[in-house]
Specification:
The structure holds 2 protein chains of 2 kinds. By secondary structure, chain A is α+β, with helices and mostly antiparallel strands. Chain A has 4 domains: 4-169 and 177-253 and 584-703, no CATH class; 259-280 and 463-573, Immunoglobulin-like; 289-443, von Willebrand factor, type A domain (Rossmann fold); 715-816, no CATH class. Chain A has a 9-stranded mixed sheet with strand order 6-5-10-3-2-14-17-16-36. In chain A, strands 28-31-32-19-20-30-29 form a 7-stranded mixed sheet, covered by helices on one side. In chain A, strands 21, 22, 23, 24, 25, 26 and 27 form a 7-stranded mixed sheet that branches. By secondary structure, chain B is mainly alpha-helical. The longest helix of chain B has 19 residues, at 118-136. Chain B is elongated, with a radius of gyration of 20 Å. The model of chain B is unreliable at 72-94 and 144-168 (pLDDT under 50). The chains are: A alpha+beta, B mainly alpha. At the A-B interface, helix 1, helix 2, strand 13 and strand 34 of A face helix 2, helix 3 and helix 6 of B.
């Protein structure tokens, strides 16, 4: 493993003061339209406790022009972000924005601009797309806008997965949109550029309930410091181009622990319940019907369609004999690969794989609506499990989700988000409305565990009549519809008690359900907690329920009110940004500081998502503006300053942990390398942010270059060899892991007694493969459970035994012992 | 006496959002509000202009094309504030959309004559492409943009702004 020490400068060099020369605008900060780009840099700082995190995004703007400007910057945030604060720092003064109804907020902003005052507006334009407007930024002036939000990471079998988008792909707009809708899309679509002069730096602190084993990222090389249950994470090379999602996977010694935390706010008690139910294994008795829907629009070209093809092939191999399947591909139109549903067999599997391998991203636009409607039309009998593979880059998400809510009653949807910037809102929304679970596959990530995990869910026994006993009456649950319960997946739900009621420390919350083998029950003890996260999480879910038309049906129609009104009331009370509320701040200026002329609009250009529509590959480097590299290449002799600008709390935390263990993050395969040398990029990161915060360095940090992932489970190679009947056609794989010579393998196979006449080499490989899974991959059991079940069933069917009818497993144990 | 509208009233009458009016004003598609400072207002002329933009959008024009059609902003602005409403473009204006078929070959369609869905347009495009390859000998693999892209077809591109691949 290669590690590299970054030089620690003796003292922080002062950040250069903005030099403003109207006659000579900065040459490097130029948009494609030929105007200076006022955004200088973005820093993301966050603290996570378990899956819940608070993140601050700091954007620094500077007007280098001779006239006042209005800057608008469109950026994405996680789908589950609750934006709860907007703070503006300018000339040493701090201004805190307030939440107002969306229209009122804009009027305040508009009037301030018309009066020559300073004004700041933050709008939610789409559920995961936001726009900040900085009005009347005077010539030579500079402002730092800090947006604070709460978010949750997704629990995984190993720990958690954090996904923060940094780019917005161009979206497909169906021609059926109205002129008004199209006007809004025009307004909120940022101008795109091939490179931008600003970058992103990162500083995240994690605290888990169990020791953290490893932190890795399929999207970026990371610098990681581990200390028991704590981890500090920064980008390996200081700064990166905002052209792909930031994805961080954290593996902990003990993945999950259920919890129920009660917090009081606004005179009401709120509770957040996290449960990781284990379900009894039940043999599926009826064959299932599976429709696979593949996005073949132009935006999927390149890395994404390649991954989609592999994922579909794995989906097909995960089916069992007797299951029925159909494959649809869609773009501007949709088509099915077979005339009707096919019954799964080796012959239909071979035919399907052949057609899937020929799929191209050649169907133009992304008319997912029509494709889903065709799938719903195809439900002839019983239930249908729908697997959707898409990057989700459409602008009619709301219509798509409505269609699923209205017509998807007999379907469950298990979507895969594909690519470096899949629309989390659409993909997660499909799962939410379709009673399934979403998985995201970043370019270069292993697809197999995700596909197999989805099939594990599809095979999971269905629970009925799932209810929560909160121990109190009149609890407002959010989300209002009970989320689906799958084995090992998180069930997260919040509740708000009526005024006057309160959870006590020894209360318990009980989840009950009817399973295939009888009633099930999980009980979690309540503990009292503090802080704003729990109430805000409840409020965000309640607002989303209203926004997506799942308003609770409590009280009379009059009491319930209009969904929009209720959403606004909740957002205003809890101080949250929503589709109906915005943050606004006005800086009233003295007469001599007012902007004397109308300000010119400057829209910050953004990067197209890496790999979008086949534009290069995600494996290619992420380029910052080449102009930056040029400027800094002449300053290479300057010492590189440490990555810094950490919040003071985080600095304290670091200083207090002198025994911090150094460890570099195993970066995944083919992780992209930002351009420029680390020192250049780090210098730029320092340049991009105001002075005043010392660069925090405690201990030494290590950086790891991108390399093959150390954590790639080898058993996935075995699973990829499984045929339609369930056998592992894996002689070489199993020989390798059991350290068996060819001769020894043949001898063992010959000793088997197989009444059915199946190939003894395949029987032995299946036997060895199964034994290996059970012995060495036990911690990944949810991933291979389904494949193992198929393999066992096939072995039983062969009626194979050891020599003289000896039990197969006893014979194997005696002959080969444990894997080599 | 000329009617005066607050931005909210104008938005409701024109069927666009307040933010859109502000955005168009910044792009100089719509003249700035009158009155200046707090209490600034809009007039029928602004409403006419917004309706005009909308009808051009419905005819399939993007904001860039609308801007070009509406002419130089400063002159228009002067026309509105000093001499009343700007005249609409000639009613007989003919709108054409381009359908790129193959490198070097486009089909131009006049608005109002076809209501084909994107799927049918794609079928049409493929048929024309096949004819062109057979009879005109056009090489479909000529490296000047391919026929299969998200942002092609008769509807305006959802991507506004410059070419994403344009170098800074």
């Amino acid at each position: 493993m290669t590690t590299k020490e970054y030089p620690h400068p003796p003292s922080p060099a002062p950040t250069p003061k903005p030099r403003f020369d109207p006659a000579r605008p900065a040459p490097i900060l130029v948009s494609p339209a030929g105007e200076p780009v006022p955004l200088l840099g973005v820093v993301m700082e966050g603290r996570f406790q378990g899956c819940a995190g608070e993140v601050a995004v700091r954007q620094r703007f500077r007007n280098t022009e001779a006239k006042p400007i209005e800057v608008t910057y469109v950026f994405p945030l996680p789908d589950n972000a609750s934006v709860c604060d907007l703070v503006i720092e300018q000339d040493g003064r701090v201004l805190r924005a307030q939440v107002e109804e969306r229209d009122k907020a804009f009027e305040l902003y508009d009037e301030a601009l018309a009066s020559g005052d300073g004004a700041f507006l933050l709008d939610q334009e789409r559920p995961n797309v936001f726009q900040v407007s900085v009005g009347s930024l005077l010539p030579g002036s500079e402002v730092v806008v800090t947006i604070r939000f709460l978010m949750t990471a997704t629990p995984t079998p190993r720990g958690l997965r954090l996904m923060i988008p940094t780019s917005i792909s161009p979206r497909y707009s169906p021609p059926t949109l109205s002129a008004a809708e199209r006007a809004e899309i025009d307004r909120t679509t940022p101008p795109y550029a091939g490179s931008v002069p600003y970058g992103l730096t990162l500083d995240l602190a994690f605290e888990a309930h169990a020791p953290i084993r490893v932190v890795e990222s399929p999207s970026h090389p990371l610098r990681t410091e581990l200390d028991g249950p704590r981890a500090r994470v920064a980008l390996g090379q200081g700064m990166t181009a905002p052209d792909r999602d930031l994805v961080i996977e954290i593996a902990t010694a003990e993945p999950h622990r259920p919890g129920a935390v009660a917090v009081e706010a606004h005179g009401r008690d709120h509770l957040l319940l996290d449960l990781f139910p284990e379900l009894p294994e039940g043999e599926r008795t009826t064959p299932r019907s599976v429709a696979i829907l593949v996005d073949c629009s132009g935006s999927m070209d390149g890395d994404s369609i390649d991954q989609a093809r592999r994922a579909v092939e794995l989906c097909l191999r995960a089916l069992s004999e007797g299951d029925r399947f159909q494959i649809f591909r869609f773009g501007s139109r949709h088509q099915s690969l077979f005339p009707g549903f096919q019954t799964f067999s080796q012959a239909t599997l071979d035919a399907a794989v052949d057609r899937v391998r020929q799929m191209r991203a050649d169907l133009g636009g992304t008319e997912i609506l029509g494709a889903l409607a065709a799938v719903f039309d195809a439900v002839d009998e019983g239930h249908l499990d729908v697997i959707v593979l898409t990057d989700g880059e459409v602008s009619n998400e709301a219509e798509v989700l409505r269609l699923v809510a209205v017509r998807g009653g007999r379907c469950r949807i298990f979507p895969f988000g594909i690519g470096a910037g899949a629309s989390e809102h659409l993909v997660a929304g499909l799962a939410r409305q379709g009673h399934g679970v979403a998985e995201f596959i970043f370019p270069g990530e292993r697809i197999e565990p995700k596909v197999l995990r989805q099939f594990g869910r599809i095979d999971s026994p269905c629970l009925e009549n799932v209810t929560i006993d909160w121990g109190h009456r009149g609890v407002e649950a959010a989300p209002v519809a009970m989320p689906p319960v799958f084995d090992g997946d998180a069930l997260t739900i919040a509740g708000r008690l009526p005024a006057g009621a309160r959870f006590a420390d020894d209360d318990r919350v009980v989840v009950r359900a009817d399973g295939p083998t009888g009633p099930l029950e999980w009980s979690v003890a309540v503990r009292r907690g503090e802080g704003g996260a729990v109430p805000l999480w409840w409020a965000r879910q309640a607002i989303r329920d209203h926004e997506e038309g799942r308003a609770p049906r409590r009280g009379s129609r009059q009491e319930r009110g209009q969904p929009e009104e209720k959403a606004v009331q909740v957002a205003m009370l809890y101080g949250l940004l929503s589709s109906q509320t915005s943050f606004v701040a006005v800086e009233e200026r003295a007469a001599d500081r007012k902007a004397g002329e109308p300000c010119e609009l400057r829209r910050v250009p953004v990067l197209v998502t890496a790999g979008y529509g086949g534009r290069g590959s995600i494996q290619a480097p992420a380029f910052l503006s080449s102009a930056i590299a040029n400027v800094f290449s002449v300053q290479k002799s300057m010492p590189a300053r440490a990555l810094g600008w950490l919040s003071s709390e985080v600095c304290n935390f670091l200083d207090g942990s002198a025994s911090m263990r150094k460890r570099s993050s195993p970066s995944p395969r083919r992780a992209p390398q930002p351009s420029g040398s680390p020192s250049e990029i780090q210098r730029k990161a320092c340049e991009s942010f105001p002075a005043g915060k010392p660069p925090a360095r405690s201990g030494k940090t290590t950086a790891s270059p991108p390399k093959e992932s150390a954590g790639m489970p080898p058993f996935l190679d075995l699973l990829a060899t499984q045929n339609a009947e369930g056998a592992f056609v894996a002689e070489s794989v199993t020989r390798q892991v059991w350290a068996l010579s060819k001769k020894r393998f043949l001898a063992l196979a010959e000793a088997l007694q197989i009444p059915g006449g199946e190939n003894p080499l395949v029987v032995l490989a299946t036997l060895l493969g199964l034994r290996w899974l059970e012995m060495l991959a036990a911690d990944q059991e949810p991933v291979w459970r389904l494949a193992a079940r198929k393999a066992r069933a096939w072995l039983r069917k062969t009626q194979a035994t050891g020599p003289d009818g000896e039990d197969l497993w006893a014979w194997l144990e005696r002959e080969v012992g444990t894997p080599g | 006496m000329e009617r005066k509208f607050a931005i909210g009233e104008l938005a409701a009458l024109a069927g666009v959002s307040r933010r859109c009016i502000h955005y168009y004003s910044q792009l100089k598609l719509v003249p700035p509000p009158l009155g200046g400072g707090r209490g600034h207002y809009y007039t029928e002329a602004h409403l006419d202009r917004l309706r005009e933009i909308r009808s051009l959008q419905e005819a399939g024009l993007g904001l860039d094309e609308i801007g070009a059609r509406l002419g130089a902003p400063s002159e228009r602005q002067a026309g509105l504030t000093e001499r009343g409403p700007v005249r609409a473009p000639p009613a007989a204006a003919v709108l054409w959309s381009r359908l790129a078929v193959l490198p070097g070959l486009e089909v131009h369609l006049q608005a109002g004559f076809t209501r084909a869905s994107p799927g049918r347009l794609e079928t049409f495009r493929q048929a024309v492409a096949a004819l062109a390859i057979r009879h005109l000998g056009i090489d479909p693999n000529f490296p000047q943009g391919g026929p299969h892209r998200d942002d092609e077809g008769i509807s305006p591109s959802p991507v506004s702004g410059p070419d994403p691949e344009a170098e800074v």
